[in-house]
Structures are given as structure tokens and as C-alpha cells.
Amino acid sequence: MSLTRRVDAFQQRHAVLGFPIGVIYKFFDDYGTYLSALVTYYAFVSIFPLLLLASTILSIVLQGHPHLQQELIDSALSEFPVIGDQLKTPQSLGGSWTAILVGVIVALYGALGAAQAIQYVSNQVWQVPRNNRPNPFVARGKSILIILMMGIGVFGVSLANVIISRWTFLGDHSALIADTVAFPLIVASMMFIFQLSASSKVRPWHVLPGAIVATILLRVLQGFGSSYVSGVVAKASSVDGVFAIVLGLLAFVYLVAMSLILAMEINVVWRKRLYPRSLLTPFSDNVELTRADQAMYAGRARAQRYKGFEEITVEFEREPDQK
């Protein structure tokens, strides 16, 4: 037996290797990099208008409490390390109520694109047949719920941070306690978004592993984003700083999108047991497919069903490897 076959057999016998390989292979089988770019485009277009809209809402709701308004804005912007420091001074949509309404509509329109992209990605990852996906009206209704949950999640964490920061008796432990409280809040938000965006029979416990991983990755990316701001943006000139902010934000959003899609893949691979995969299956036809390989490829084919009365049959000339 060749070295490659021995390594392949070893990873198929050990889930600690087979599972992550299955997640990575499915990510590339689903063209995860392109799906990440799709989400990045819509999120990048909508993120600034949404932050401006949130600032406007806070300025109206907390009109008589400027200090609380500033604290909430600072805490919320800390979730976006690349541009947070650039928006510390609260700006809002000005003008008449008509102008504000127009601004709200524009911001929500951009956000709907991002939420629609998340639904599309989720359905692709879960291999939902096209005829089982929601119609345009239902899909946009779900998108509004996704946007609301994102907003509730961000400002829920922000409010918790503000409350805990005022508990002076905690001393130096306040930051650690705030992060501890924020973690389950973010996980719950992720679970809601992952479950709602999938048009298949997904239960909360089916998306819990991915929600936990997504929250951890998001926190890690926020740390890298903060380091990028302090190490690159702060030292750049005014012109270079603009490019550093734009490119940094684009990279940050792309990595966040990729993290979310990887988290979705974790849920699907775990739920449908799409592992272990044959080690060489992405590189050659001369392989013995595992049952997980066949289930993966058959699922992708059936996901292209456009009508309920359309039948898609998938056959493989070789029997699956029993490992």
C-alpha cells in the first residue's frame, strides 16, 4: 500500500482528522471562496449605511441621554475594529423626517442584499433543492428578520458591555466578564441566523456547533482587526489611511463571511455525516469514493431540482468504499 493510501485510510478511521477534512472539502465543493465573495460584496455595500442608521435611531431614542448614547455607539463600533475608530463621533442622518425615511429605506435595501446572500449561501450549503427554497416575498421577509437579529445581537452585546463597565466593584475583571456574557449572546444570534436562513428542516441543536465556532472565529478576527488598526492605519498618512481603511474593511468582511460559511459547513457535515471523505477525491477520478463522497455529490445534483415533479437520479459506476 502506498503512503498516500495509508494516510487516506488513517484519516478515514479517525474522525478527529476525517471531520475537518470533510468540512474543508465540502467548503471547496460548494465554491466557498466565491460564496464568501458574494456575501462580502453585499455586506461591504451595506455596512456603513446600517451603522449610520443605527446611530440615527440611537440619537432619536436616547435624545436626552447623550452619555449613554455615546457609550452604546462606542461599544457597538468596537465590534467593527477596522472602521470603528473612524466613526467614534456619532453622526446621524440629518434633515427632515422625509430625508431620514429615505435614508432608512436605502440602508435597509442594501442590508436586504446581504441577508438574501446569506440565505442563498445557506441553501447551497444545506443542498436545498431550488423548488423547496422560499419565493421572493417570503425570502425577503426572512431577510428582514435576519437583519433585525443582527441588530439585536450587536446592540444586545453593546448594552451588556455598557452595564458591566458601570459595575466598578468588578475592577480589572469587567472586560473578562463582559466577554463571557457576550459569548452566549453572540452564539444565540448565530444559531437564529443559521436556522432561519436554511430552507430545510434544521433544528437549533443542528446549528449549535457552527454557531460556537463562528463566534470564536469572529472574536479572533476582531482581535486581528484591532491590531491592524493600531499597527497600520494609525501610522499611515491621510491618503494611505483611506486606502488602508477600505482595503482593511474589505479583507475583514471577507474573512468574516468565510468564517460564517465554514461554520455552516461544520453544521451540515456534522448533521449529514458527510465524512470521512476520500483524500484524493478533489484531485483525481481514480479514487474509491466513500459513502460520504457519494452523498455529497448526489446532494449537489439533487439541489438543482427546479420543480417538484422533476426527478434527478444519481448513479455511480463504482461501489462506495466501506470505510
TrEMBL record:
Major subcellular location class: membrane
InterPro entries: Virul_fac_BrkB
Domain of life: Bacteria
Signal peptide span: none
Name of this chain's protein: YihY family inner membrane protein
Key word Membrane present: yes
Keywords: Cell membrane, Membrane, Transmembrane, Transmembrane helix
Topology of this chain in the membrane: Multi-pass membrane protein
DNA repair as UniProt keyword: no
Membrane-spanning residues: 40-62, 97-122, 143-164, 176-194, 206-229, 241-263
Record's GO cellular component terms: plasma membrane
Localisation per UniProt entry: Cell membrane
